[in-house]
């Protein structure tokens, strides 16, 4: 035997002795104890004792540094093998305990998994609001802004600023709902149309003006299929230098096409409004029958539907708000929002809008 050989036998013996002296636990012997553990907390304690900082395995790992190179490798391999084996056994037990604990928790909380979950039904905007939004969007696309004004209004803005004669029937109590009588200067009423906002807006802004004004209006009307005492209008006003009647017709024809369909045609019939001159009512071809059905439910067979009132702003209105009629011209229009909705969707009774019947409302989810 050479000296070298002798030395290597010597080393092997040392290694064996060292490994024997390592006080490593045998994981398979611990299995029975692991199986007996019933809770996550207890298993956590067991983990700490056997793999934690103060554990035998941790101590032996620390000792590795003191061993000569040849021994360190083998000893390290053994320690890691034991550690991994033990960790696997603990993990498997943890999985089983977790399932049991979850089941126990569900039983304790009494959750009945057969109970139907709650259903939250999501509502939608009212059809009137949908139409207001759609009409506003069409005019925003044409460069208009949206404006608004008060519903409790001075008679001045509702009538006088709008060139309405003192003896106009609209001023009667039988037509308009008054809040406060008095001097013409502070007589208060519930506005009968959205037109007072024309005057308010022009007073507060320099021309050019391009606005639409959606809002609630009030009239002393009895409820029937075509009247509600509280209803909605959308007003339009365009004031600039050189605006002509052809601008009115072109703009409103474009609105009708966007709102009712690209084949829609319009016609203007002479009419009277105190604040426009000349004035007109605008009809559109019936989107439902397009004039082809003499018994059409929507247009009554005429092929035409009345859509809105309009006209060129009367110079007296410009005077009342401080604009110079020599500098600017303009047109205005006003449409009943319920009317627009009825024409568009073939609704035959205005009362549907306020009945709050879900069978009606649910047909217009938006
Ligand atoms: N304000 C009018 C109405 O309520 C409608 C209208 C507005 C007419 C603007 C012409 C110009 O009937």
List the defining traits of the structure above:
13 helices; 7-stranded mixed beta sheet; single chain; 3-stranded antiparallel beta sheet; 2 domains; binds phenylalanine; 366 residues; BirA Bifunctional Protein, domain 2
Structure write-up:
The protein is built from 13 helices and 10 strands. The chain has 366 residues and is α+β, with helices and mostly antiparallel strands. The strands form 2 sheets. Strands 1-5-6-10-9-8-7 form a 7-stranded mixed beta sheet, sandwiched between helices. A 3-stranded antiparallel beta sheet has the order 2-4-3. The protein is elongated, with a radius of gyration of 43 Å. The model has no long low-confidence stretch (mean pLDDT 92).
Reconstruct the topology from this structure.
Elements: H1 3-21, H2 27-36, H3 40-51, H4 56-63, H5 69-109, H6 127-141, E1 145-146, E2 152-154, H7 155-158, E3 178-180, E4 188-190, H8 196-204, E5 209-218, E6 230-240, H9 245-260, E7 266-273, E8 276-285, E9 304-313, H10 315-321, E10 329-336, H11 337-345, H12 352-355, H13 358-361
Parallel strand pairs: 1-5
Antiparallel strand pairs: 2-4, 3-4, 5-6, 6-10, 7-8, 8-9, 9-10
Helix pairs in contact: 2-5, 3-5, 6-11, 8-10
Question: Could you please say which CATH topology of the largest domain applies here?
Answer: BirA Bifunctional Protein, domain 2
Count of discrete alpha- or pi-helical segments spanning 4 or more residues: 13
- List SSEs in N-to-C order: HHHHHHEEHEEHEEHEEEHEHHH
Ions, cofactors and other ligands present here are: phenylalanine
What level of helicity do the residues show?
A: 40-55%
Widest beta sheet: strand line-up: 1-5-6-10-9-8-7
Radius of gyration over C-alpha positions, nearest whole angstrom:
43 Å
CATH architecture descriptor text of the largest domain = 2-Layer Sandwich
What are the segments in which pLDDT stays under 50 over at least 5 consecutive residues?
none
Report the average pLDDT across residues: 92
Strand proportion, as a percent range, falls in 15-25%
Distance between the termini: 99 Å
Domain module tally? 2
State the total count of DSSP E strands.
10
The CATH C-level name of the largest domain is: Alpha Beta
**Major beta-sheet overview:** 7 strands, mixed
Question: Which structural category do the helix and sheet elements fall into?
Answer: alpha+beta
Anisotropy-based shape? elongated
